[in-house]
Structures are given as structure tokens and as C-alpha cells.
Write a structure and sequence with these properties.
There is one protein chain. By secondary structure, the chain is mostly beta strands. It has one domain. Helices cover 10% and strands 36% of the residues. The protein has two helices and nine strands. Strands 3-4-2-1-7-8-9-6-5 form a nine-stranded mixed β-sheet. The radius of gyration is 20 Å and the shape is globular. The model has no long low-confidence stretch (mean pLDDT 83).
């Protein structure tokens, strides 16, 4: 999938020492979260699309491009405060959570250089980090019907 980065973003991606690096933002949404959790991987907060993103260190492993497997990424956020852990306890592990990845330049936060929303699953909480898997549901491998007649489910008709 082609990405249309601005000229300034392309220069910063290809530079060994960029004047202004791309900022990676994460927005975690869930039905049980009144306000989505928003983080920016930087030392200063930033406002994007009218929402404040809290400066917080996190590690993001981008999806790979391997044959015959669904691309997946990993996200680990520092466990600051108790907001995320309380939400995880309340929501039963955050099942159904979605994560939006955004890349912007601090000089032009209204221009989203990269924007992708993925499913967030497999959440693990420690005293220091909260981690999970990012990806897409493999809808091609799901059964088209809820009940299938085969020798296992209906042995009397075979």
C-alpha cells in the first residue's frame, strides 16, 4: 500500500539526522473508554485534530511482510498512572479495543502523514509496561456458517 508522505516528511525519513523527526501518535479506543487513551512518542505533548496527546515513551514494532501470514505489529506503552490498568480490569482485558497509529510533523500537526487503525489484542500488563498485538482480524479463515454438517458434528448422516 503506497504512502503519500509530504516532501518534508520524505526528507526527514531519509535523513540520518533529521531537523524535525516524524512523531508517532497512538490513540486507543474501546467501548468502555469514555475518552480514548492518546500518546505521542516524544518529550512534549501535542494537539492533533483538537485532541491532546500525552508525551509518553512507547515501543512500536511495525508489521512485517512475510508470505502466508497476516501482518501484525506490537505496541508497548509505559504504565504511567492507573488509567489504562483500571480500564483493562474493568473491560475484561480490553477485548474489542482498536488502536490508531498516526505520524505527523510537529511543525504541521494538521497534516496526517500516516494514519492506520488496527485491532488491539493480547494485552499484557506488568508494573512497568502495557503491551499488545496490533493487526487485522483474519476474516478469510473464518467459517461462513455457524453449523457445518460433517462426520464430527453429525455422525449419524454419514
Amino acid at each position: 500500500m503506497a504512502r503519500n508522505f509530504s516532501l518534508q516528511a520524505k526528507r526527514n525519513i531519509n535523513a540520518t539526522s533529521a531537523d524535525e523527526p516524524l512523531l508517532v501518535l497512538v490513540e486507543i479506543t474501546h467501548a468502555d473508554l469514555a475518552v480514548p487513551a492518546r500518546f505521542v512518542n516524544d518529550t512534549a505533548d501535542i494537539d492533533v485534530e483538537g485532541h491532546a496527546f500525552l508525551a509518553c515513551r512507547f515501543d512500536l514494532t511495525l508489521p512485517d511482510d512475510q508470505d502466508e501470514q497476516v501482518p501484525g505489529a506490537k505496541l508497548e506503552v509505559d504504565n504511567i498512572g492507573r488509567d489504562l490498568t483500571q480500564w483493562l480490569e474493568y473491560s475484561g482485558g480490553g477485548k474489542g479495543a482498536r488502536c490508531r497509529l498516526i505520524m505527523v510533523l510537529r511543525s504541521n500537526p494538521s497534516n496526517l502523514e500516516f494514519d492506520m487503525t488496527m485491532d488491539l489484542s493480547g494485552l499484557v500488563v506488568t508494573n512497568f509496561r502495557i503491551g499488545g498485538d496490533l493487526g487485522f482480524k483474519n476474516t478469510l479463515m473464518q467459517s461462513a456458517c455457524t453449523m457445518r454438517f460433517d462426520p464430527t458434528t453429525s455422525p449419524g448422516i454419514f
